[in-house]
Structures are given as structure tokens and as C-alpha cells.
Write a structure and sequence with these properties.
Elements (H helix, E strand, L loop, with lengths): L10 E5 L4 H11 L3 E6 L12 E3 L2 E6 L1 H6 L3 E5 L5 H12 L3 E4 L3 H7 L3 H7 L4 E6 L14 H7 L23 H22 L3 E6 H8 L1 H8 L20 E3 L5 E4 L4 H12 L2 H5 L6 H6 L1 H12 L4 H10 L4 E3 L3 H5 L2 H5 L3 E5 L5 E5 L23 H7 L4 H9 L5
Parallel strand pairs: 1-2, 1-6, 2-5, 6-7, 7-8
Antiparallel strand pairs: 3-4, 9-10, 10-11, 12-13
Amino acid sequence: MSDPGPLQGIRVVELGMWAAGPACGAVLGDWGADVIKIEDPRAGDPMRGFQVRRKDDPDLRVSPSFALNNRNKRSVTLNLQNEGGMAVALDLVDQADVFVSNFRPAALERLGLDPDTLTAKFPRLIYGQMTGYGHRGPERDRAAFDYGAGWARAGIMASIGEPSGPPPGQRPAMIDHPAGLSLAGGIAAALFERTRTGKGQIVRTSLFQMGMWMKGVDLQAAMVGGPLPLPESRFAAVNPLFNSYRTKDGRWIYLIMMQGDRHWRDFCRAIGRHDWAEEASLQTMRGRFERSREIVAQLDDLFAGRTLEEWTAVLDADNIFWAKVQNDADVLADPQAAALEAWGDVADAAGATMSVLKSPIGFSRTHTSLRLAAPEVGQHTEEVLLEHGYTWEQIAALKERGAIG
């Protein structure tokens, strides 16, 4: 039996789909909360459909994203267009501490599950609302994924990549996951505040705001009159010591010496360029910037002369600030990730084991845990309803009326 998490005893009802809302529910579940996921009986969360074959058993298909964002949850299938299904949903919320949703505001209002309605009906409820572009404003109901609302609209996409190339895309859920984590943190703060006042409240964030927060350093500089950031070419880096270089074996290293003046001499000595260390014109950031193309070209040739393993020994021996550029396979084999126990195993209803990435917050005394694999659609409907006081006869009647799956 794993140690209890800091949210043990907290009940959460999630009405979410895709990634951002479910990611919040997954984090709350990791922290010990009992999370009930409401799904449509006809299909469930659409993220279930994005499946791949399991490498250990090609006959089995799984949805990696669904497994990641829906562990530690129980699935209940309710037809919210049905009066009986809605009544069950409200019963679940009545006995919950937290309600989480990333449905569009207008859809929640049509259902009567919007923040104002539910918090008026249940004054102790903490309502976590995730939106694409925010809960108010002219685009509150615009369809949104993090690719658009966070990556593109918030300014990230336009500020990275080579200046002459198209803006780069992102990988799945790169903004959904920090948004879900931040909403979980806000919910935890609201739960703490409720211990003092006895009152619930609405906690909100959006993918658009999360994108702006991730881009906050640039946006803040622009707000005070600084130059607007433009994509920077690695061939003419403002600071050649804050740039990427390719090694002899085709790997990339990323130098991260942002304080160029502080590191310049030590770096030059480490790589054997003692002439650079003493050259007067290269002792300042401006001097190096003015000769940036020349320096980067020479560093390209230099780093191409040794393998990543060889450069690792050289750079680490002189405490140079740098990092390996790793692909997913590298990360999964990284001993530092293993030391952090960054993932763990869960068993699904059929007994098959799957490794799942853990959420990144840890506690010294009240632990996080992976207790449940992502559920099948409606796997726990009867179990949850029985816990909430329904009888088998009532459950059968709800099924006959099409209220539950």
C-alpha cells in the first residue's frame, strides 16, 4: 500500500477531454485525490481514438496520451443530454470537493454546468475551469488546442526557428501539460483557502495565458519598451556561447553560458583556443557579437572534430555550462531520469502493465502514487454509483432510460 498523497480524501469530478483538462485531473489523482471522469457513453473522451500498437504485444493497441493524462481516475459514462444522466452528474458533484472541466464556456452554460451555476448550487465547491482563450472576451468560445491558443497565438511560434524558415511546430500537449499542472496548483491553493473560510471558489486558467506566461520574459521586455524578439539564426548567434553545435558523431550539444563575459576565458582554455582567451577584441559581449559568424563557424569546425563522448569529458572537466540534445529514446535511457524515478508502472483491468510518466511535483512526506491505469470507457460506472448511494434497481432503471452507459 503506497503512502497517502497530500490530497487523500478529496473528491474530484472531471468533465474533460483531449489533454489540458484531463492533465489537471491526472495531477490531482497523483496527489491522492479520488478522481471520477465523466464520459459520453457513445464514445468517451476522443483522445482514446489516438492509438498505437504496444511494442511488447503488437496485437494490443493503446492510446499513450490517454494513458498519460487519465491514470488514477475512474470512468463513469453519463448521457448529459438525458435528464436522468444530468441528475446523476449533479449528485456526483454534490459529494465532490472539486469540479474540473475544459469544455467551452458556452457548452457548459447550455448544460447548466458552468462555474457560476455550480458554485451557486454548491457553495463549498472548488471549480477548476480550463479554457482555450479565456472565460471572457470576444473569443471565449473559439475552438482551441494548445497548438493554436498557446503556441501560435501567444507568440512562441513566431519567435523561434531560423529567421528565413517557416515558424516551427510543437510536439503534442507541450502547453496542455503545464497548463494542467498550474490549474491543479491553483485548485490546491483554493482548497487550502477553504479550510479557513469554508467557501469554495472558481479557479481559472487558459492555454492562451499559459502560452503568454511561458513567453513571459520576452513579453515583459516588450511591455517596458525593449526590442521585439525575432528568431535568431544559430549561424550568427548574439552570444556564440549560447548556441548549439554538432559533434563528429552527429550528436548536438547546447552551450548555455548566458553570461558570456564570465565564461569566455574558461571556455576558450577548455577547448584549446588560448588565442581567443587573450585577444582583446573578444573580451566583451559586443566584440564577440560583431564577429559572431566567424566564431560560430570556427566552433562548428572545432566541435565536429570530436564525438559527444569526447566533448563530454572535455567540457565537464572544466565545469562548462552545457547540455546534451537528446531524443526521446535518449531521455528514456537517461540515468538521471531513472534516479528521479520519473516513471512508474500501473496495471490495467486486464492485468497488462504499462509504464507511465509521473507528474513532476514531489513531496517529502506525503507521496505521489500511480494507483490506477487509465480506465476503459465507463469501467467504474456501477461502482461509483453504488458508492454514492444508488441501488442496483436504480442503476438498472437509469440504463433502461439511456441515462448511463
